[in-house]
Design goal:
The chain is mostly beta strands. The protein folds into 3 domains: 9-166, no CATH class; 185-276, Immunoglobulin-like, CATH 2.60.40.10; 277-369, Immunoglobulin-like. Helices cover 14% and strands 38% of the residues. It contains 8 helices and 22 strands. The protein has helices at 9-12, 35-41, 45-48, 69-79, 119-129, 138-145, 164-167, 176-179, and strands at residues 18-19, 22-26, 30-32, 50-51, 59-60, 84-93, 107-116, 191-199, 202-209, 215-220, 223-224, 236-239, 246-254, 260-271, 274-275, 282-283, 295-301, 305-313, 318-327, 330-336, 349-357, 360-368. Strands 8, 9, 10, 11, 12, 13, 14 and 15 form an 8-stranded mixed β-sheet that branches. Helix 4 (69-79) packs across helix 6. The chain is elongated, with a radius of gyration of 25 Å.
């Protein structure tokens, strides 16, 4: 059954619509991030505004007890879709805009910004972050099923220096409508790399994963590959854009609730069944980069050699010696925890990893963000 949709003129005629919401829970819609909030903002108050509970001066643009609110949200969103979303997640509201029974405990320190050009995907990831299952949030399911965006986490790629599981917070859920979509399991899936090698221009990978694993992402030399893997984890073959003799590999496994775990390995090129040994040593890009506060620095030696690996700050002063001595030939990886030689944590900023051997000197830029 069709019905008229009334939009605020300024909103309807805007060249671009950017939603800048706060990350918060909502008792009626379960989640209020980019999509529902913009719907309230674009409705003409002269048409939709009504008294709520007969309380003077407390007026809302829509009736939040409306049973098909997800359809209302869909209709308004499709009338003028959002072009871009920037979620202000520095402080979330775990009891929603009303504050709950104890407003002083409403704020949840999140320290994150989430942005994207698919509002449905942004809201779905926001749901994971605050401990909700987006597959049970009516308006997200409705929008996804009607082609308004993507709420399936297996099809959403999240880029940045932290992962969703690193910033998840267990928001309190007291209302029956939000308890129904609450995620209680924050346990990451098990993961182990059982075999990894590069054959010509293809990464061959075999993993042992938990049964709940739904998605695998792979980063090679600090760059996330565009292909995600959703099945066949025991025999993965992915073409590499820039094959090299040695690669630093990170594999990330996700379950249905975006809980994740990772495993790393250093892999070498294989030619005719034998390792293709480099003629000079290599310093690989650290991963992750940017990082907070730990990163892995990998290098490769074609022969046994004396090696010094030092971290310098942006002024060129050495702050940490990670390695100094004789090292065997092959691939090596060291972790730096963002501390100096005395064990004190260092501030955010630009640092450099420098390796020196008889084969020469190499340096890579690293960025620590806290």
């Amino acid at each position: 059954k069709s019905r008229p949709i009334y939009l605020a003129k300024l909103y309807a005629q805007a060249d671009a619509v950017i939603s800048i919401p706060v990350l918060k829970k909502h008792e009626s819609a379960a989640l209020t991030v980019s999509i529902k909030n913009i719907g309230i903002g674009m409705t003409p108050p002269s048409i939709y505004r009504k008294d709520l509970y007969n309380i003077p001066n407390l007026r809302f643009e829509i009736d939040h007890s409306y049973p098909d609110m997800h359809k209302w949200i869909h209709d308004f969103f499709m009338s003028r879709p959002i072009d871009f979303v920037i979620v202000d997640g520095l402080q979330g509201l775990q009891h929603g805009p009303g504050g709950g029974s104890n407003p002083s405990q409403n704020r949840m320190n999140m320290r994150l910004i989430l942005a994207g050009n698919d509002p449905v995907a942004v809201d779905a990831i926001s749901a994971h972050i605050i401990g909700m299952d987006p597959s049970k949030i009516n308006y997200l399911v409705y929008l996804h099923n009607h082609g308004a965006g993507c709420a399936d986490h297996k099809l959403i790629r999240v880029h940045g220096n932290v992962r969703v599981s690193d910033v998840k917070k267990k928001y309190q859920h007291s209302d029956a409508r939000t308890i129904a979509v609450q995620i209680s399991d924050f346990t990451p899936p098990a993961l182990r790399i059982t075999a990894a090698e590069v054959q010509e221009q293809t990464l061959a990978l075999s993993l042992t994963t938990a049964t709940e694993t739904e998605l695998i992402e792979i980063a090679v030399d600090g760059q996330l590959l565009p292909q995600a893997v959703v099945a066949g984890f025991d025999d993965i073959r992915i073409p590499l854009p820039q094959p090299a003799a040695v690669h630093q590999l990170e594999v990330i496994a996700y379950d249905a609730f975006r809980n994740s775990t990772s495993a790393t390995a250093t892999v070498t090129q294989v030619v005719d069944g034998r390792d293709n040994i480099a003629t000079t040593f290599q310093l690989l890009p650290n991963y992750p980069n940017p990082f907070n506060p730990t990163t892995t620095i990998s290098f490769y030696l074609p022969t046994e050699d004396r090696v010094t690996l030092t971290v310098y700050n942006s002024l060129g002063a050495p702050v940490r010696t990670l390695l100094s001595g004789a090292i065997s030939a092959g691939s090596h990886a060291l972790q730096w925890s963002g501390r100096d030689d005395t064990g004190n944590p260092l501030p955010s900023g630009v640092y450099y990893a420098e390796i020196v051997s008889s084969g020469g000197r190499m340096r890579n830029k690293m960025v620590m963000v806290k």
